[in-house]
Amino acid sequence: MFRFELQPSSATPLYRQIVEQVTRAAAAGVLRDGEELPSVRAVAQEYVVNPMTVSKAYSLLEAQGIVERRRGMGMFVRAREATAESDRLALLQPALEHAARVSRQLGISADEAIAAFQQTLAHLQPASAIGGQETSDE
What does the alpha-carbon distance between residue 107 and residue 101 come to, in Å, rounded to a whole number? Predict the structure, then answer.
């Protein structure tokens, strides 16, 4: 079952975090056609968030055509064509722009920022490998 990585201390609202994570997971193929999302109640209980927050996120995802509600069954990822790499990169662009702005504000060089990004990717890869590309640090 899909797991969210919600960060209550983030400036990004929780409902938006849910929408972005499902959107990215569907684009990357982590969530596949017909895969069920956890119920509103299950997400609200597990992450200690208001059920209306989860419901709002799911409604936005449904409006965007990323998921579909099946009466009496729950929310399921909709059939979609494979998302092109350029589309996946477009989903990453806002986060990269934010990181670039923060790097400039902190006076971090482009080389240092890229090295930090690569180190972060390497650190996170084993826990969230996509498509069987998991690597091992051992």
Answer: 10
pLDDT of residue 82: 53
Single-letter amino acid, residue 108: I
Joined tokens for residue 74: 């729950």
Q: Which two tokens stand for residue 30?
A: 């982590």
Looking at residue 133, what is its pLDDT? 39
* Tokens linked to 120: 């972060």
30-65 per-position pLDDT tens digit: 898 899 999 999 999 999 999 999 999 999 999 999
Contact 44, 55 (CB under 8 A): no
